[in-house]
Amino acid sequence: MVRTIPLDPVMGVDHRGLRAGRLVGRRLTTAVPLAILISLAVFALAAASPFDPLDAYLGAHGDSFTETQRADLRNRLNLDQSWFGAWWSWLGDLLRGELGESRSYHQPVTQVLAERLPWSLLLGVLGGVVALSLGAVLGAWAGLRRGGLADRAISAGAIVLQAVPPFVLALGAVLLFALTLRWFPAAGLTDPGRGVDAASTARHLILPATLLGVTQLPWLVLGLRETVARSLDGDAIKGAKARGLPWRVIAFRHVLPVAIVPFLTLCGARLPELVVGATVVETIFSWPGLGSATVEAARALDFPLLAIMTVLITALVLLGNLAADAAGVLIDPRIDADG
């Protein structure tokens, strides 16, 4: 949490770089213990699960194994350990750079991450760009035209969009744009029987990336709209109007700069929802990213993969919030990084 402070009237400087550095250092000292506790919770919840990881691993072939074979396989997969012992063993392997074997993909976890992480980053970055771009334009437009037709239309659209679950929105987009209009492919990374290339990947990426960005729009639009509209009632804006400054100067030099920091903070706070939305989008569009791998790992009780995925998602959310707060400190010298 950050708070606003006045600038030093004597020194005339704000030391924003130093304060941003303190913020980063303080957050990082808490990020590692938090990630460890979350990974511990994954194994604890696994122990409470009524499902047997061995049954998930064997699948439909489980009935063909004898009890002796099952016991031997359980021992080889380290499924006979207590949950704390399994977590301690996993943590030791992690510190040595060994992430173990994914039971659902029958591959080393490092290989699963290497194959899928770039595609998740590509989808997430483009989806984030769509959300930030449209959110900034529509939110600022609605706020600056407070009470007008544009404001009412944009706000009403954001409220309606907020009420639609992401999976319903995704299925509707597939039905309309892929199956009915046939503008975009329905799923996958490339066309069947065709290798991965830039043109094919771009065609398959447009719809899921746009949809991922649209799922984050309501909160960004409404949050920025409220900040901009509230800024219009400030004394500084009233003074600028009294001095006869043009509306364009008031909007772009007085109103929007004030709204940047709250908007960045809101963007950081939306990262968990972006990750959840990416998981839904990847699953529906059969996108070969980490989101769909997380769903598969949870379904197959693949805890070596699920644990590292949980840690990575936690780190992403923490780093995103940290980046947003640090940017706010660097942009606005009135923000107190120690608050």
What does this structure look like?
The protein is mostly helical. It has a single domain (3-336), classed as MetI-like (MetI-like fold, Orthogonal Bundle). The protein has helices at 16-48, 53-58, 67-76, 83-95, 109-144, 149-163, 166-180, 198-215, 217-231, 235-242, 247-269, 271-284, 290-299, 303-331; strands spanning 3-4, 101-102, 107-108, 335-336. The radius of gyration is 24 Å and the shape is globular. Residues 4-13 have low confidence and may be disordered.
List the helices and strands and how they pair.
Layout: E1 3-4, H1 16-48, H2 53-58, H3 67-76, H4 83-95, E2 101-102, E3 107-108, H5 109-144, H6 149-163, H7 166-180, H8 198-215, H9 217-231, H10 235-242, H11 247-269, H12 271-284, H13 290-299, H14 303-331, E4 335-336
Antiparallel strand pairs: 1-4, 2-3
| Count of strand segments | 4
CATH secondary-structure class: Mainly Alpha
CATH H level: which superfamily? Answer: MetI-like
Report the principal-axis shape. Answer: globular
Q: What series of H and E elements makes up the topology?
A: EHHHHEEHHHHHHHHHHE
- CATH topological fold name: MetI-like fold
Overall domain count:
1
Which structural category fits the helices and strands?
mainly alpha
Overall helicity: over 70%
Radius of gyration based on Cα positions: 24 Å
Q: How large a portion of the residues is in β-strands, by DSSP E?
A: under 5%
